[in-house]
Amino acid sequence: MATTADIRTGLIIKLDNSLYSVVEFGQNKTARAAAKVWAKLKGVDNSRSIEHTWNSGDTIYPVRVEKKAFQFLYQDDSGYNFMDNETFEQIALPEGMIDAPQFLKEGQEVGVSINTETEQPMSVELPDKIVVKVTYSEPGLKGDTATRTLKPATVETGATVNVPLFVNEGELIRVNTKNGEYIERVKE
């Protein structure tokens, strides 16, 4: 059995028959009362975000999660289709389970979190940084580089990313999938 001392960021726990991922946690200590442990939780099997408080030492129920490498194949009416890189088994998942579906490209490797108790997929996580090709971008004005001016650019996945003025159509850029921001230009 796990207690509140085992809480850490990213831990998935069962609370009120739902699964939640710990986003942030901390401890409140007062002189007279017992210590309390609080956590901000994000729903794994639902779209709720909640805060919960336990007494220090209370029992929590963590869920064992295994992360497997899958490859994104295609998107159709059934959802986003992925293939297990080891068993070649295919699964179709809804868009809500994917952390940044706008950056998925065919053949890309992703990490799928699987609940080991039920063998059900819980979420799909893209790599933190990916390289994509700019398919459309307005030309930048020469000499307008005194400030960090950004312009919208469409990448090969269809997503729009704000890039510096010097980035042109056809170039490869590295993008942060967590916040959708431009990181750098990539040489081929």
Describe what this molecule looks like in 3D:
This protein is mainly β and 188 residues long. It folds into three domains: 2-62, SH3 type barrels, CATH 2.30.30.30; 65-125, OB fold (Dihydrolipoamide Acetyltransferase, E2P) (Beta Barrel), CATH 2.40.50.140; 129-186, Beta Barrel (OB fold (Dihydrolipoamide Acetyltransferase, E2P)), CATH 2.40.50. The protein has no helices and 16 strands. It has a six-stranded antiparallel β-sheet, with no helix packed on it. Strands 9-8-7-10-11 form a five-stranded antiparallel β-sheet, with no helix packed on it.
Summarize the structure.
The protein contains no helices and 16 strands. By secondary structure, the chain is mainly beta. The chain has a six-stranded antiparallel sheet, with no helix packed on it.
Name a few traits of the molecule:
single chain; mainly beta; OB fold (Dihydrolipoamide Acetyltransferase, E2P); 5-stranded antiparallel beta sheet; SH3 type barrels; 188 residues
Task: Give the % helix.
Answer: under 10%
Number of domains: 3
Overall shape:
flat
Helices, by number, come to: 0
Q: Which CATH first-tier class of the largest domain would you pick?
A: Mainly Beta
Structural class: mainly beta
Write down the CATH topology of the largest domain: SH3 type barrels
Mean pLDDT value = 87
- Spans of at least 5 consecutive residues whose pLDDT stays below 50 are none
The main sheet orders its strands as 1-6-2-3-4-5
Residue share in β-strands: over 45%
Computed Rg: 21 Å
Largest sheet: 6 strands, antiparallel
- Helix-strand pattern, N to C? EEEEEEEEEEEEEEEE
Q: Report how far the terminal alpha carbons are from each other.
A: 51 Å
CATH architecture of the largest domain: Roll
Total number of strands:
16
